What we know:
The chain is an all-alpha fold. It has one domain (17-214): Tetracycline Repressor, domain 2 (Orthogonal Bundle), CATH 1.10.357. The protein is 67% helix and 0% strand. It is built from eleven helices and no strands. It has helices at residues 17-22, 36-50, 58-65, 69-75, 79-101, 108-123, 126-134, 136-140, 145-162, 169-187, 198-214. The two termini are 33 Å apart.
Amino acid sequence: MVTVMQAGADAGAVGSLDDVEGLDSEKDAPPAPASTRERILDVALDLFTEKGFDATSLREIAEQLGVTKAALYYHFASKDDILMALHMRLHELGKGALGQIAGEPVTLELWGDLLNQIVDQMLAQRRIFLMHERNQAALEKLHRNDHDAEHDDIQNKFRQVLSDPRLPLRDRVRMACSFGAVFAGLFMSGDAFEGTSNQELGDLLRDAVQDVLAG
C-alpha cells in the first residue's frame, strides 16, 4: 500500500540599460523550461486533483499538453506509472532529510531544524498532498517492487534514528510526535486548510513542532 513517510520570461526591448545589466546576472535569467516528463506530471497532478485519477484519461492529459498519446507512452507505460511518479516526488524529500542526519546522533535542535526544512519543501509540494487525499483508493492499489523497497528503507532509517539508545527516551518520543504533527498537518493542508496560505500554514506547523519538542 502506498503511504508517505514532492514548476520563460518575455523579452523586453533590446538595448535598454536594464537589459545590459541583466546579461551578467544569473538571477535575471529565465528559468529553464520543464522537461516533457515533468510537464506530463504537472498536468496529470492538476487533473488527478480536480477530476480524480479514475475519471482522468491519458487522452485528456495528452490534449492538455498538446501532444499525442504516443508521446505520453514514451515517458510512461500507463496512467498508474504517472501516479506512482507523482508519489515518488515525496520519497525524494524523505531521502533528502535522511541524508542530513545519517551516521550521527540527532539532538532535539537538529531534529527541529530538519523538520523546518521539511515543512518548506513539502509545502512546495502541497498540491501532491491534496491529490493523495482525494485519490487514496487509487494509491492503495499501487504496488511496485522498487517503490516498496524504497519506502521500507526510508521507514527503517527513521526507525533507526528514533530507536537510537544514545538519545534519551523522552527526546525520542518528542521527535516522533513532532514528526507526526508535521505530516498530519500537511495531509490536512488540502481540503481542510485549503484557504490557508503556505506562509501561514508553515508558520503554524513550525510553532507546533517547537511546542512538541519543548514539551
